[in-house]
TrEMBL record:
Superkingdom: Bacteria
Protein name, as recorded: Sulfotransferase
Lineage: Bacteria, Pseudomonadati, Pseudomonadota, Gammaproteobacteria, Alteromonadales
UniProt cross-references to SMART domains, sorted A to Z: TPR
Pfam families for the chain: Sulfotransfer_3, TPR_8
TPR repeats: 70-103
Annotated keywords: TPR repeat, Transferase
Organism encoding this protein: Thalassomonas haliotis
Family matches, as InterPro entries: P-loop_NTPase (IPR027417), TPR-like_helical_dom_sf (IPR011990), TPR_rpt (IPR019734), TPST-like (IPR026634)
Length: 649
């Protein structure tokens, strides 16, 4: 059977032959029913033919396959507008521009349909922006938001060759670099553009965002402060500053600013969510709960506040809220992120009720959806593990010995997530000589920098590039790490970096900071792996959404840690979560013996320590050690055959 090409369908549409084009679409979909481009074209044909039910059916299939595709929501907006349902039309046009701000027709419709002055102002601004944007860059912008990054980059670079000082071109190229996670390039492009147009607020917003992503929180805060002073009445500038205040630990200032923003716009569900996160971080749990509940009142289908309640680990969902979540997840939540959040929240809610089968069903549904949208390849990760073992041989480690920055300040707590690392951090930071900080991404950023612009199909430069670095260059990386992390410290002799993924780069750490302490938190395999499976991570743990990926990652981690112990003998402490729970005093004493500090009484009463904690275990580490989490997985044992089989391989 001949399957029509999309180009021939598009040609028929351009000629106004919608019936012929629709016939070709249906033929193409018989051969490939999940062809998203053809589903979109079929919906367009149906709309022009006034076959609105069929158009909606095609778009419903399209949204399930591509929930972030803005043009699908734009088509729905056109359909609802044609049938006189202007309220639904406006909802969909707003969804369209949220997913793809380059959609001129949607902004025009928002401008015409909305009665909200802020939406009107935003629409007018964006229409004006798109009107003055060169045609090539308008296409680049659309490609970016449709995740067609190679096409976007090629077109943008071609445009920049002809217009090398075009500021908006630099800004879009920086967006592409950010999407590729080449954050140093993005930062450089935005810095250069700001030198050309220092008063360009949009450049400065993007610059703050990149600095924040690079964990340059102090610089991001300074830029956000400048922006807020330039635009004191602008809500976006004030929100940006509040976010940066929270990032550098100015929690009281952030709380005051979020509250002011809420008073100004009490219909924005994002604002109480962000305020709730700050309250959670500093241990004001009831105020966090109140904020999350107020988010839900404002937007019942917004999944994040439900998951934020579940992620407190101590909140008991009332039955009415559970019923509401079930309604939202099966019907009204059309956003993929919302559905993922709702499924994970329902998993925890039913777990609290000891309805473990229903709980597992929702954990599984959330993981299945999330696994489809994360960009994770277990073979790539296995290769990364292998490259570490191949390069860091005993002879190579010996060749690098004695280089790097000799400071003893850093204590790296690493391993897999959900292994008690936050508990260990809380114990350590209860000592007068140790500062607790965050999961710092600096080491991971250096890895990216050393690897350069290497994508999955190319040969990695890292870690073998380390052999090319001089002792001075290695020491510079160590000194840079100490300087960049200084903002998180409060004056103690030692500080903690709790980024779990650093276990993949112990060789780099020991090369640039040879005297750093390294603590590997370990947990029994099934207990660890299932705990990972039922945790929805903000970012950085893409392996965690299928049993097979989790098992392979766990096995790779164990093998790599065994290698690190061989090449760095007696330099790494393995601390078992089960031992910590069973014999806390003995295990904590061993921990401080390794650090080389005397045990202080406060370290045994760590749960009384007042400090900000940003991880999922924030409320658990504010309680004494207990046995609750040790064998939690056993409640789910009937559903873990796949995980057991994968771990046994």
């Amino acid at each position: 059977m001949h399957i029509p090409e999309t180009s021939s369908i598009q040609k028929q549409i351009q000629q106004g032959r919608f019936t012929v084009a629709l016939t070709l679409c249906k033929q193409a979909l018989e051969g490939k029913p999940t062809d998203t481009e053809v589903l979109y074209l079929a919906a367009v044909c149906c709309r022009y033919l006034e076959q609105y039910c069929d158009a909606t059916s095609f778009l419903s299939q399209l949204v399930k396959l591509l929930p972030g595709y803005g043009r699908a929501y734009q088509e729905l907006g056109h359909i609802y507008r044609a049938t006189g349902e202007n309220h639904k039309a406006l909802e969909n046009f707003l969804l369209a521009v949220k997913r793809n701000p380059s959609l001129h027709a949607s902004w025009q419709a928002v401008s015409e349909l909305t009665g909200n002055s802020e939406e009107q102002s935003t629409a007018t601004h964006n229409l004006n922006y798109l009107k003055h944007l060169p045609k090539a860059l308008a296409s680049v912008l659309s490609f970016i938001y449709e995740d067609r990054l190679e096409k976007a980059e090629k077109l943008c670079r071609h445009f920049m060759l002809q217009h090398p000082k075009h500021v908006e071109g630099m800004r879009l190229l920086a967006k592409i670099a950010e999407k590729h996670h080449v954050l140093d390039d993005a930062e450089f492009l935005l810095e250069t553009a700001l030198q050309l147009e220092p008063e360009n607020h949009w450049l400065q917003f993007d610059y703050v965002n990149i600095l924040h992503h690079r964990q340059k929180f102090e610089s991001a805060y300074v830029q956000a402060l400048m922006l807020s002073e330039r635009l004191p009445e602008d809500s976006a500038s004030q929100l940006t500053l509040a976010n940066q205040e929270a990032a550098i630990g100015k929690y009281d200032d952030a709380i005051e600013r979020y509250r002011a923003l809420i008073a100004k716009d009490n219909n924005n569900a994002l604002l109480p969510l962000l305020l709730g996160h700050v309250y959670k971080t500093i241990g004001r749990q009831q105020e966090a709960i109140n904020c999350y509940l107020s988010c839900i009142e404002l937007n019942k289908s917004f999944g994040d506040p439900y998951w934020s309640l579940a992620n407190l680990k101590t909140f008991e969902f009332p039955q009415a809220l559970i019923e509401q979540m079930l309604t939202m997840v099966t019907g009204q939540a059309n956003n993929t992120d919302d559905r993922v959040h709702l499924h994970f929240a329902l998993g925890k809610a039913f777990e609290n009720q000891q309805a473990f089968e229903r709980s597992f069903e929702h954990y599984q549904s959330g993981n299945d959806i999330k696994r489809e949208i994360v960009n994770y390849d277990s073979e790539v990760m296995a290769n990364n593990f292998s490259l570490q073992k191949q390069f860091f041989t005993p002879s190579q480690v010996s060749a690098l010995h004695g280089m790097g920055e000799q400071a003893e300040d850093p204590i790296f707590v690493l391993g897999l997530p959900r292994t008690g690392s936050t508990l260990v951090e809380q114990i350590l930071s209860s000592h007068s000589q140790i500062d607790g900080t965050l999961e710092l991404p600096n080491i991971l950023a250096y890895v990216q920098e050393l690897n350069g612009r290497k994508f999955k199909h190319t040969n990695a430069r890292y870690p073998k590039v380390l052999a090319e670095l001089s002792a001075e260059e290695l020491a510079h990386f160590g000194q840079r790490y100490l300087k960049e992390t200084q903002i998180h410290r409060k004056g103690a002799a030692y500080f903690i970096d709790k980024m779990p993924n650093n276990f993949r780069h112990i060789g780099l750490i020991k090369s640039i900071l040879p005297n750093a302490k390294i603590i590997d938190t370990r947990r029994e395999p099934l207990s660890c792996c299932f705990s990972v499976y039922k945790q929805l991570f903000a970012e950085g743990q893409e392996f965690s959404y299928s049993f097979d990926d989790i098992a392979k990652y766990y096995q790779g981690y164990v093998a790599l840690m065994a290698h690190w112990h061989r090449v760095y003998p007696e330099q790494i402490l393995t601390l078992n979560y089960e031992s910590l729970v069973a014999s806390p005093t003995e295990t904590i004493t061993r921990l401080f013996d390794y650090i080389g500090l005397p045990l202080e009484p406060g370290c045994l009463e760590f749960y009384k320590t007042k400090r900000a904690v940003r991880t999922a275990s924030s409320e658990q580490v504010r309680q004494p050690i207990n046995q609750k989490g040790i064998e939690q997985w056993k409640h789910y044992e009937p559903y873990l055959a796949e995980l057991k089989a994968s771990l046994a391989q």
